[in-house]
Design brief:
Blueprint (H helix, E strand, L loop, with lengths): L1 E7 L2 E4 L4 E2 L7 H4 L1 H12 L3 E4 L2 E4 L3 E3 L2 H9 L5 H4 L1 E2 L5 H10 L11 E4 L3
Antiparallel strand pairs: 1-2, 1-8, 2-6, 3-5, 4-5, 7-8
Helix pairs in contact: 2-3
Length: 119
């Protein structure tokens, strides 16, 4: 399972073609109900379509935060600042901290963050 996304002014965008796990953990419906309901809504309206045992994003989708995006993709509670990583392995949190520390350096988050689940 692999998903890609980027930070944007309107939130965190997961790219079309990204994958999401087919099943959520049982506790998701109890502990992060809003994210669970959003996932069901995306399945219901066709943004997430089942393909080969995984869901796939049929279009780019903007989430309110990287954590909401990660939770929908992983089917469990998730800290998006830790789960989303650049190709070099740095977390979104590390990239954000580096950008804040080096104000003259502007990281291009577009298409550089990914989330891979080893299940």
């Amino acid at each position: 399972m692999q998903a890609t996304g980027y930070e944007a002014s309107q939130g965190f965008v997961v790219r079309a073609g990204s994958q999401a796990v087919a099943d959520t953990v049982p506790s998701m419906a109890l502990h992060v109900r809003g994210m669970y309901d959003l996932r069901l809504e995306l399945i219901g309206n066709g943004v997430l379509g089942l393909q080969g045992g995984l869901y796939q994003f049929t279009q780019d989708y903007s989430f309110s935060s990287p954590s909401t995006a990660a939770a929908v993709v992983l089917g469990r509670s998730a800290n998006g600042r830790i789960e989303w990583k650049a190709a070099d392995g740095r977390t979104l949190k590390e990239l954000q901290e580096a950008e804040a520390a080096e104000s003259s350096i502007h990281y291009n988050f577009d298409s550089c963050l990914r989330l891979i689940d080893g299940r």
